[in-house]
Amino acid sequence: MHGSVFLLCVFAGVVSAQREGINLPPAVIQTALGCMAETAVNPEILPQLLNPRMYDKNSDKRVHKFLNCTFARMGYAKKNGHVRIDKVIDLFPKDMDGNKRAAVKKVMEECNKENGSDPAETTYKIFGCFVKNSPVK
């Protein structure tokens, strides 16, 4: 598997990053496209969401809002911006190595402690933390 699995939960179709082994709900692309229109995020930035360095410098609130919109509408984020870890873990292949699954869950739990000034920034910080620290590349 390539890239951040957490990212793939939401943006596989949008950033043309379909990865093997991820069970993506069909509504992901439609939801992400709707959130792109609603937040006016620049679509050219979406492939950069895989780059951990992006989270050290990006302060574009549209990106924050886009991530939160997509996660929340898909049911992967709560109203406060924190993610529903078990729901995201369910997207991983059932036959995934138990140690790897546990490592991914541990990183998600740690990243889910991040907080922003609003739900959109919270989702953005959690997402960035996972991209930076994911054991699945």
Automatic annotation (TrEMBL):
Molecular-function GO term, any one: odorant binding
Keyword Phosphoprotein appears in the UniProt entry: no
Localization, UniProt: Secreted
Pfam families xref list: PBP_GOBP (PF01395)
Main localization, broad class: secreted
Single GO BP term: sensory perception of smell
Residues spanning the signal sequence: 1-17
Keywords: Secreted, Signal
Keyword Nucleotidyltransferase attached: no
SUPFAM superfamilies: Insect pheromone/odorant-binding proteins (SSF47565)
InterPro entries in UniProt: PBP/GOBP (IPR006170), PBP_GOBP_sf (IPR036728)
GO cellular component, one term: extracellular space
Family membership: Belongs to the PBP/GOBP family.
The name this protein goes by in its record: Odorant binding protein OBP11
Source lineage: Eukaryota, Metazoa, Ecdysozoa, Arthropoda, Hexapoda
